[in-house]
Amino acid sequence: MGADLERWRLILGPAAERHTGGLGPENAARDAALDWLYSRGDDLGKRDVRRGGARGDRGGGDEPSILTTIDWLDGIHRLFPKETIERLERDAVERYEIHDVLTDPDVLARIEPNPALLKAVLRTKHLMNPQVLAAARRIVEEVVRRLVEKLSVEVRTVFTGSRNRRPSRHRRARDFDLKRTLQGNLKHYRPEERRVAIERPHFHSRTSKRLEQWQLVLLVDQSGSMTSSVIHSAVTAACLYALPGLKTHLVAFDTSVVDMTSEVDDPVELLMKVQLGGGTDIAKAVDYAAGLIENPRRSIVALITDFYEGGNANRLVHTVKQLCQQGTQVLGLAALDEEANPVYDREMAGRLAAQGAHIGAMTPSHLVEFVAERLGT
């Protein structure tokens, strides 16, 4: 059986075997691993196009599975590349809700930390016993560490200073002005070598960002649909909290308001304490933020929510209007994550925009840039 036919057999499932032939030992093991997961079918028991067979055709009934979750995890880590492993683990948690991935400490010890698992841990941690929670914390710590490392680089890049158009006598590689250097040295172009001889390089001057007297209040909706935004808000707050001259607050809310600023420098501990789910009272949260503002014209309130208000909508609009009128920058984010594909109440978002709020969806790096631009004015 050729390699191409074996790949098609893996994609299409046993129904295609009469056309493709059988599988070799290694691909048979891959097929068993895929079958363990995808034979479960979707919620309606319909045909699963990923594996080319109906639920009943793939042995996905109520009989006990031959493989345990631990065996399956060990197998996929041996049989598949990293990208495929992450997809399989994500589907196990999110699509098929295989709960022992999150409730068995032995399974948690083997599984590869990734953002999908972090979200699943945060949604289910209230159900975990202390032993399982300790194992789950490893996933939280590893994914948060990666996110902090990535965003910290972007924060340093934005806040180490901005170039302006004035020339500088200080010759530093990071301030090299390529455009002016080429323009000023074109007369030294050597056509036979197709090179420009640089006799006088040019450099930018660099001015530091003014961070004094600014205040940033991150208001984060902790309803279940906002899990990704909660994660990235905690990481963003931790990275910005260390900046000198910028006073950063992090406030989580549902129908109540919890100020988590005292723990913002430890995003892992903060996320382990967040309680996802429940109702939403955005007006109460914005009222609380308004009470924190010290200098309105040096303040940013970033409201991260889906805008589905369960509290007093008119009060919310009124408070946002007051904040904008007094000079506070109000930023309404329907999503704060790497995908920035929000689902939100457009009517309410439109009402807030009409009062002067900036409404959108951002990645964490874009939020950092937004804050830096305001602080530089």
UniProtKB/TrEMBL annotation:
InterPro entries assigned: LolB, Uncharacterised_CoxE, VWF_A, vWFA_dom_sf
Source species: Glycomyces paridis
Residue stretches making up the VWFA domain: 213-372
Lineage: Bacteria, Bacillati, Actinomycetota, Actinomycetes, Glycomycetales
Entry protein name: VWA domain-containing protein
Highest taxon, organism lineage: Bacteria
SMART domains: VWA (SM00327)
